[in-house]
Amino acid sequence: MKNLIKKFILSLIVFGASLLTPVFAHAAEYYMSPIGNDNNSGSINSPFASISKAQAVASYGDTVFIMGGTYKNFNIASSDNTYNYVNNITKSGITYRAFSSSDIPVFDFSTVPTNKRVAAFHIAKGVTDVTIATIDVTGVKVGNQKQSECFRVEGNALLYEVTCHDTEANGFYFVNNGTGYCTKCDAYNNIGATKFSIGNTDGFGAHGNGVVFQYCRSWNNSDDGFDCLTSKGTNTFDHCWAFNMNAGGDSNGFKIGGYASGTPYDPVPVHTVYACLAANNKAHGFYANHQPGQSAYWYNNTAYNNRGGNFDMLERVSINDPTDIPGTREIVHNNLSFNGIAIKDSNLPSKNVISNSWNIEGITVTASDFQSLDISELTKKRDYTNSDELIPDVKFMHLVNGSDLKGLGCF
Fold first, then answer.
1. Is 333 helix (H, G, I), strand (E, B) or coil?
2. CB-count exposure of residue 106 (10 Å: 0-12, 13-18, 19+)
3. pLDDT per residue over 346-370, tens digit each?
4. pLDDT band at 411 (very low <50, low <70, confident <90, very high)
5. pLDDT given at position 21
6. CA within 20 to 30 Å of 301's CA: 190, 217, 242, 410, which one?
7. Alpha-carbon distance 380 to 355, whole Å?
8. Where are the beta strands (DSSP E) in 154-235?
9. pLDDT value, residue 26
10. How far apart are CA 235 and CA 372, in angstroms?
């Protein structure tokens, strides 16, 4: 059953090439360095200093190699009434990637002014096939604004091995018609600076026209780990982790669905949450979040110690009736819950809730079923030099040999 589900998930991911071993095709190569100069030629021995300059000379299919070191002297490329766009990507088909996976470039935005919201990287509307790979983003400030964003994607982008951490901003924010992929990305310690912004600072936000998240981690962000409120497209969450959301906002692990006071899209998108982990979050682990219809297919997920409930299937009656109801349409199979309310706000028919740890006769989940309950393992540093590592190897919530929970959960 689990292999069939895996094939189903992979069939949803239509990108042309495997995201696990991406191919960065290029027609020409340019280089940039923290000690470069935008008057240089952009060669490996004469690198540029900025993405703006590299983009100006690059064309579709080209690659910009980013040398190691810290980039912190930024000009604002573009502004509107709301945002300062620091790196404004307006050309399609260009790849921006680390020159070496053993020397990760760091982009530090701590000196960028906050007279407007900050978008450290902006993929503009209509821009497609942009790849950004193996960089570290930090220091984005929010000031008194409602929110800022490390990545604001309004076009189409593949973000691969990108980390957003220790900022006051959303990590990865897909909005409007934004689409794309986040693969092997991390967002952590992103905490709004004021009461106003704390509740708007997620690790990953899928509010656009459909995003695939694979092997991504989100922890200690001040709102939610993964949030797809108001999404008009279908989102897929595949082997992702959300844990330790306890910093003051909504604090859900996976908030999958909902439109708040906005008008729901018709038809309402149905998302997929497969082989994901939600642990030690102040609110819900996996949350249907008032979806006016089915929120998701929930397959082979693991939930641990989420204080608002490990699985919460709260729905609304319909797109025309916002009355909250216990969920009746969610599909919940092969999930594992330990140390928390297994499932709540659920009025699901039995055919929709099959082979979960809480409804298999004779099954009792205890600490002895797991190799480790040490949640600190989940913050293990990634090894970008190991292309075979999809997500860090841990023992947390992995089943011991002989456990009768085999086949359940994400490990």
1. strand
2. middle
3. 999 999 999 999 999 999 999 999 9
4. very high
5. 42
6. 190
7. 31
8. 156-167, 170-175, 179-183, 186-190, 204-207, 211-214, 217-219, 226-227
9. 46
10. 31
How many other C-beta atoms are found inside a 10 Å radius of the C-beta of residue 234?
18
Query: In whole angstroms, what is the distance from residue 211 CA to residue 190 CA?
Result: 21
Domains contained in the chain, CATH given: 2-8+27-379 (2.160.20.10)
Tokens describing residue 25: 């095709």
302 SS3 class:
strand
pTM value is: 0.93
Residues linked to residue 157 through DSSP beta bridges, in sequence order: 130, 180
Alpha helices, DSSP H, located in 159-284: 195-198
Centre a 10 Å sphere on the Cβ of residue 376 and count the other Cβ atoms it contains: 10
Residues comprising the chain, all counted: 411
Residue 1: how many other CB atoms lie within 10 Å: 12
Structure tokens at 268: 């309402």
From the CB of residue 170, how many other CB atoms can be counted at a distance below 10 Å? 31
Q: For 180-210, write each residue's pLDDT tens digit.
A: 999 999 999 999 999 899 999 999 999 999 9
Type of residue at 201: T
Average pLDDT value for residue range 131-151: 98
Which amino acid makes up residue 288?
Answer: A
How far is residue 113 from each of residues 160, 189, 403, measured CA to CA in Å?
Answer: 27, 20, 54
**Contact assessment for residue 191 and residue 242, using Cβ atoms and an 8 Å cutoff:** no
High-pLDDT (> 90) share of the chain, %: 91
Q: Give the position of tokens 């990953």.
A: 204
Read off the amino acid at residue 267: P
Tokens of 306: 């989420």
Segment 26-72, tens digit of pLDDT? 489 999 999 999 999 999 999 999 999 999 999 999 999 999 999 99
Rounded CA gap, 136 and 161, in Å? Answer: 9
